[in-house]
Automatic annotation (TrEMBL), chains A, B, C, D:
Keyword Heme in annotation: no
EC number: 6.3.4.5
Ranges of residues in domain Arginosuccinate synthase-like N-terminal: 10-173
One GO location term (cellular component): cytoplasm
Full protein name: Argininosuccinate synthase
SUPFAM superfamilies from the UniProt entry: Adenine nucleotide alpha hydrolases-like, Argininosuccinate synthetase, C-terminal domain
Residues reported to bind ATP: 14-22, 41, 124
């Protein structure tokens, strides 16, 4: 729309070095005759980044316009961990692995645009998905003047054949294994790998085994359970088995452990923000372990008032992240509430990993609110007076009695 | 309190036939000199009921005052299934197996009191737990004139020794295996078995294997996964592997299947309504499978508006059930909203059971809202115009742009 | 977008008979060469409808294609009253007078389209406002095949001069007082009159007196208060001063009474769904009285559980109506919950009307939950045992004490 | 209960100097033989405090045990203003004037107990009301070891006659006008005056005029409206008519202005936390003006995401304050979210005061998000592309279309 009519002078492109974003790079150059700046981020997707530099140079990008950055620590510290403080699950099950990576990419795109004097940013997301929304809302929220170019919504390269033809015409090298169509589409970062489309499009068909890339099948996982201890401070994981680690290191290690035991697989049909349902296969090995452990430590360190409020806010919080509103006042308000609750979420959880499941089996903390003195079946030395319960119940019942008496009059 | 001063003439007691409720029966007779009516319900706890009749008769209860009933179908149809329509989880994890059985027991206690002209009901729950609250709130909500006797809050039988002495004095037979103290306390019904207390009181210690009674350990479950198909109509399970079954039969069958595969174990520290934390071991084999499958069928039959509203109401709904407010206007309001959402939650889900996990792997329905025509990566024949997304994003972004412009002025 | 490319054969137009919709009528005929069906509804906007027939005929609409209907009773019974059961206020203050009328108009447009074999409907709302969204979402929700034509988003009649030129070219009569531009824009129906735009566009400037059309200024209202009694049944108003009346008659009468006393004026800056803020002047005389009275009767007939749940759902409910989601599963779910709560909202409220304010001063009901026996400062004959409060407080305090003890350890 | 059995050595009493708390003072001395410390706070209730010192001395309280403090600034700054940032209304209408004062009193009671080595605090609230809960929850949340003595729940002075007899026996002077029973009970502080009980106990009867103490009747208010301008910074009022003032000064001034114009009267039936309904007459003149103005400034400075989230959290927030959970983690979490939203709630509101109503008539701010460029009915120079709305609507409609198509298949 408005964006379509806009002719950018200099565009910062989220560039993976792969075929699709290489085509976009070239298309931006030919369609708009504009200067292109490339931004390639290591979010833990497990690919070499340096090849992207060579490819960009080959396509005429000036060295000072090539940005390649390892943002893994920032990703986990400022995005993944704050989200896990909320125990966020979209539609009850999805750990938001794709959603949470987009705002960081947009943030860097906008910052690089501001540094390099670019007037636009561009991304390779299609017009059907959520990612376009996430990229663009984040960009606009960070710089209201920036323009966003979404080639997939603009160009007429609507089939694989046309794309490959464009690549050929423009001397973009196409790896042999990219000539055919991939049987499904993949997104990956340190938190998760998602697969969707093509062979996965029928939710009545089980996903083929070859879709899974990051976790072993539970059937192939070790026959012995493994027990690990995760340490938390103020709601964030800080150690594994007693060894302190940085945020990205912890998530990497949890991915390794979770993946080995087949944890974090999800076959899911979700509601996209753009209005349709889609089916995805998600693998979030470390995330699944982390969620379980975080809940475990909250069980003893969070009181019911805080915990129940958190639970009731979580669906809205997860929806905001899924829909692309990370940089919105309401997400920040919820984050303020959630972070406030985490001040004493400090302690250690023992988690059992076995054949696809991560299960809390023990937890302890100096900050524990669990009081054996109160709960014990034994004599409690006056910690709790059972007779108090009578009054508690009477007053909780009072309105129900008044209701019952009223309602009986009208039966 | 007020209840303590009240002297009942005739009391309906929730009577299991076990030692504790036999002592209560006798205590009611001796303390108040009142007539006792016993109510023994088969909620699927897996115990013979008829021995309770003999024991009651032995303690002088008139035959017409002995009520023994199989309420399993009512339990599942009117309590368990409505709750599962909500995907209810207390504090993110607990399937509310104890909570949901209490209102039904109270309902029958009150009804029997009205039939037999009793002026009070009595239960065997202690003054520290949630069950006393659940029993009593439900009773008062159904009959505002009824009195509730809670012997554990009144008597001075505060230790095992005193209890056994009272039993002996009163010729209450004590089974040999009941002479010692049980290492933990158990509650069971068709939905779950819970264990708590004693050896489980330290949440930093792993629960011993012998606590689990209803599920095999995942390690001992079959090495081959089992795939089952659960059919739903309007949100309720109606068939397994194509065979139509009654509510209680379905849950029984799911318990068998889930239990065999080690599904539905939970080691949990929860917040009791009475203000303390407690640790419980829950086994809900059929329930765990049912929750997973219900979510699976909702994924394709529920739209996002309904689904997200349900998700946001669920924590409050679960809290109400946990706290004993089944018979409250607010639970009924939420139920009306939830039931409204289930009109098209009809279809079939394939679930994989393996080593402790129940996982949706496929789902289909004539009522499906999933549209491959819209979501496909292939040509969609005009089902969806990608250019619409530009306008969608622009208007969603407008307020964020206005915010960003404003906030920049104050940096 | 997609709609723009579509060429309708037969269009049902929401036609007021005024200049703007007459221009749209002609534009549809000339732009698309399609047959036009007109629908003119009496929603209580206070204008004669029959002139619309003559105008439509003059523009060549066949008599069988002219639909003129009095929908006031349906409007109040099926839209206004259900909404008032919720005490709905958008952004704390706005009674949603425009929002609630749109779904009914769309419903009739779609029904008439189905009756007359039309393939599209058309409305006269602009591309900046909420009404386009409300019209179109309702239409699509009722008939997924229908197309909606929104001429203001399509044509190039972007200025008053161009519009008048088009009218002149096409022999559309223009009343003299319509030649100049109106100083603001007005929407009216039985529930309210809204004014916005032009002289009202600066929210720092007080609205001029001449904007108000339906209420006297509080300063000009009678110097004596007037007391009226409104009777309710199941949440809906059914009588005034003891006289039973139909829904539309009651609202008409309340408008008269409220308007005479200057009630229901609102100067408001709101957030439109399309992302911008706008300023409106609303006059909802009868609605303001009705809201006050409904709250008054709920005070004695609704219990706190139901009332607090309603309060917490209301903002979402109001937002859904404002945003145009009347016909959505989530609005229907909330309505089911709200309606469930109203079963005993029956009784009478005395309201004082004076100089702009409507104030509940007394209320009574056979369904009242108010118990003087419990609340009295006098002896209560055992209705309430004050000692119960001690236990109630102790158990409510328990978690706070455990928190305080924990937090003290870390100071 | 537990508290009842406790024998305090030294008690800090919330002491007004009036008859009731003087009787309590003496009763504590005689019943427990304990040392009494008095705390008398100026919360703006409009009474002289120094007489309380003389009375306390007369009853044998040591000078160093008499604490008389002006806490008005703290009250408004740390309690009233944070609450008004939330636009808190209990059950839609009540400005929480009593509720918000209790935590501050408890805070000082506990602090003085810690300073003076007292082991208990005492208050004069009855066992039927909310205030006992508020006092005690706050005290326990601040010091888990403190004991609270609530004489009204303990003693047998259950009638006026017995109270006066006790006073006489103990040489407590009784003012002549206190010999008879007051026709209703009053609580007052800088935010409000509440009246309840006795002549007000029948909610079907209009409250007599003499109940109102702090506001003129709207009928007696000036015949000319008065316009005032309230300045806000980060959500708090900071000036009136351009003059900067301290929090307590502002509220005092607003009370004067609002009271003169009859603003802030409320005749209300509410749900007490202890389970019964009660009827109160509230006068909150300054608060009513402040709420209106705060909403006015939020209208232009808060975006819809933040505003709607605030609206949806407000009922829970108000309920927490009403129920006495000011010092709870969940109130603090909500406060963190609310405060986060107020960072740009800065600007000025013009409010019209007239015959009982306070009405925003204009508002302006450097922080305004209102964009005339976007909303204008005139040419907007490209600020907004109306065609974007088509895509916005199409994608919002998509799920509704899919629903409609599905639902049609099952009709």
């Amino acid at each position: 729309m408005s964006a379509a009519k806009f002719a950018p002078k200099k565009v910062v492109l989220a560039y993976s070095g792969g075929l699709d974003t290489s085509i976009i790079l070239k298309w931006l150059q030919t369609e708009y005759g504009c200067e292109v700046v490339t931004f390639t981020a290591d979010l833990g997707q497990g690919e070499e980044l340096e090849p992207a530099r060579a490819k960009a140079e080959l396509m005429g990008i000036k060295p000072e316009n090539i940005f390649i950055e390892d943002v893994r620590e920032e990703f986990v510290r400022d995005f993944v961990f704050p989200m896990f403080r909320a125990n966020a699950l979209y539609e009850g099950l999805y750990l938001l692995g794709t959603s949470i990576a987009r705002p960081l990419i947009s943030k860097r795109l906008v910052e690089i645009a501001e540094m390099t004097g670019a007037d636009a940013v561009a991304h390779g997301a299609t017009g059907k998905g959520n990612d376009q929304v996430r990229f663009e809302l984040a960009a606009y929220a960070l710089n209201p003047e920036i323009k966003v170019i979404a080639p997939w919504r603009e160009w007429d390269l609507s089939s694989r054949t046309k794309l490959l033809a464009f690549a050929e015409e423009n001397q973009i090298p196409v790896a042999k294994d990219k000539r055919g169509e991939a049987p499904f589409s993949v997104d990956a970062n340190l938190l998760h790998t998602s697969s969707e489309g093509k062979v996965l499009e029928d939710p009545a068909q089980m996903a083929p085994d070859y879709v899974y890339q990051r976790t072993v099948a539970p059937e192939d996982a070790p026959n012995e359970p493994e027990f690990i201890e995760i340490g938390f401070e103020k709601g964030d994981a800080v150690s594994i088995n007693g060894e302190a680690m940085s945020p990205a290191t912890i998530l990497t290690k949890l991915n390794e452990l979770g993946g080995k035991h087949g944890c974090g697989r999800l076959d899911f049909v979700e509601n996209r923000f753009v209005g349709m349902k889609s089916r995805g296969i998600y693998e979030t090995p470390g995330g699944a372990v982390l969620l379980e452990a975080h809940r475990g430590i909250e069980q003893i360190t969070l009181d019911s008032g805080a915990g129940h409020l958190k639970d009731s806010l979580m669906p809205r919080y997860a929806e905001l992240i899924y829909n692309g509103f990370w940089y919105s006042p309401e997400r920040e308000m919820l984050q303020a509430a959630i972070d406030k609750s985490q001040e004493h979420v400090t302690g250690t959880v023992r988690v059992k990993l076995y054949k696809g499941a991560a299960t809390t089996v023990a937890r302890w903390s100096d900050h524990s609110l669990y009081s054996e003195a109160h709960v014990t079946f034994e004599e409690d030395a006056g910690a709790y007076d059972q007779k108090d319960a009578a009054g508690f119940i009477q007053l909780n019942a009072l309105r129900l009695k008044l209701l019952a008496a009223r309602n009986r009059r009208f039966k």
